[in-house]
Amino acid sequence: MTGRPDSLLWWRAGTVSAMTFLLGAVGHVSAGGLMPSWVVLAAMFAIGTTVCASVLSQRVSAGRIIALVALGQTACHAVLSLAAGHAGDAPAVARDLGHGAGTSSLPVSDGHRVGSLQDYYDATVGASTTGSALTVPDPAALLQHLPMFALHTLVAVLVGLWLAAGERALSALLTLVVTRVVALLVVPAVAVTTAPRLAPLRRRPATPPSLARVARTVVRRGPPALLAA
């Protein structure tokens, strides 16, 4: 897909970035995560659009678009998990729920996880003054989120296939439009340059005067003058 205008490339990159960002944000919010400030969201969208533009500047396959959406969704979800929760009382809620240092489960309120991963780290590992600084996540806690990961992967594959179909349709449409426009511009020029020259008209010889015209030149009618005498 090389040779396309820059504006069209950025429109395509913005569309892919918006869909990827939307999937990551919806997955993050549905898991009980908090949203960061608008400045962080705008920066994430700008970075995602730039990355998508660099990838889409060349011809891409459906598999590459699916990988782009899946990786972008994962990165978006991870950044939102680390950046969200800076304003508010998420760490206090985590401590009030009794998830202090040494616990291995995520802070939960009303069945939903509260705060960001950074808040959980500050409330557990950061508040601890003893013990090792290296913590190993609980496999049981990770398995609880396995259905969510599978659902995100399935949605990323479906959205990637949809975007790949849109890429093919857009490429076919642009090819058709360019072909028609070039055909309309080239055919008249060829027709003008190759038009056959008209042969000069041949003048026919003057036709002899008709009998009626000769008859009008005779003044006297009737028998000859000798017969009349």
Brief overview, please?
The chain has 229 residues and is mostly helical. The protein has helices spanning 6-30, 38-56, 62-83, 90-96, 117-124, 139-144, 146-193, 211-217, 225-228; strands at 108-109, 112-113. The model is unreliable at 85-104 and 129-134 (pLDDT under 50).
Explain what the structure shows.
By secondary structure, this protein is mainly alpha-helical. The chain has helices spanning 6-30, 38-56, 62-83, 90-96, 117-124, 139-144, 146-193, 211-217, 225-228, and strands spanning 108-109, 112-113. The chain folds into two domains: 1-84 and 148-192, no CATH class; 91-127, no CATH class. It has a two-stranded antiparallel ribbon. Strand 1 and strand 2 (112-113) form a beta hairpin. Helix 1 crosses helix 2 (38-56) and helix 3 packs across helix 7 (146-193). The longest helix has 48 residues, at 146-193. The model is unreliable at 85-104 and 129-134 (pLDDT under 50).
Q: What strand line-up does the widest sheet have?
A: 1-2
Count structural domains.
2
Strand content: under 5%
Q: What would you report as the Rg, rounded to the nearest angstrom?
A: 42 Å
**Given the C-alpha coordinates, what overall shape results?**
rod-shaped
| Low-pLDDT segments, ≥5 res | 85-104, 129-134
